[in-house]
Amino acid sequence: LSVAVLISGAGSNLRALLEAASEPDFPARIVVVGADREAAGFSHAEDFGIPSFMVPWEQFDSREAWGAELGAQLAVWEPDLVVLSGLMRLLPATLVEEWAPRIVNTHPAYLPEFPGAHGVRDALAAGVPQTGASVIIVDAGVDSGPILAQERVPVFEGDDEHSLHERIKPVERRLLIDVVERIAAGDLDLAAAAAGPQDPVD
Ligand code: GRF
């Protein structure tokens, strides 16, 4: 299974995926890393000899135009799966429709709790005793797609956004690697998952 990973930041989740995919028996390989800015995470792609591309958000005059270029870059690599791992940009609906259901996203909260760009901060602000990590299929909404995997993560007294996020990320990485492996092994059918629970055939 060929995988493209899109990032915006440090790419620690990307690195975990690159390490897992470099295991000889891992059934997926990362073919390209893309970002909407000069992401620090590009260094991980370089370390693993993986090509990368950048579609700088500020060089485009609309989400649609940015998304069209992103889609054109992805089309060069024709990945079977696109993984959003810390991409801090909403994809335009046209791009989602073109690639769905072959785009998955990892989010540092127990969706549908705390969607959006500040899931960790929002959980802290809500004072909840636990939050979580989720891997979903990307749809045209904000973190609203079908949930493929999720796991609870405790919030401790004295946590700040960084400490809580650092506790969530390892869980995210494990869930993401497991989901990619299951998709690659054919154990997880994205089209079926995207179609949602079917009424039992009576
Ligand atoms: C991850 O928690 C991701 O879910 C969120 O931002 C974080 C990115 O971390 N959107 P990194 O860039 O993988 O270190």
Can you walk me through this structure?
With 202 residues, the chain is of the alpha/beta class. Helices cover 38% and strands 20% of the residues. It is built from seven helices and seven strands, in the order E-H-E-H-E-H-E-H-E-H-E-E-H-H. It has helices at residues 12-21, 42-47, 63-77, 93-99, 119-126, 161-184, 190-195; strands at residues 2-7, 29-35, 52-54, 81-84, 103-107, 130-137, 147-154. Strands 3-2-1-4-5-6-7 form a seven-stranded mixed sheet, sandwiched between helices. Helix 1 (12-21) links the parallel strand 1 and strand 2. Helix 1 packs parallel to helix 6. The structure holds 5-O-phosphono-beta-D-ribofuranosylamine. 5-O-phosphono-beta-D-ribofuranosylamine binds at residues 7, 9-14, 41, 85-86, 106-108, 169, 172.
Task: Calculate Rg over CA atoms.
Answer: 17 Å
Strand content: 15-25%
| First-last Cα distance | 35 Å
State the total count of DSSP E strands: 7
> What's the average pLDDT?
96
Bound molecules: 5-O-phosphono-beta-D-ribofuranosylamine
Strand order of the largest sheet: 3-2-1-4-5-6-7
Q: How is the main sheet built?
A: 7 strands, mixed
Poorly predicted regions: none
Helix amount: 25-40%
Order of helices and strands: EHEHEHEHEHEEHH
Outline: globular
Structural class: alpha/beta
Q: How many separate helices?
A: 7
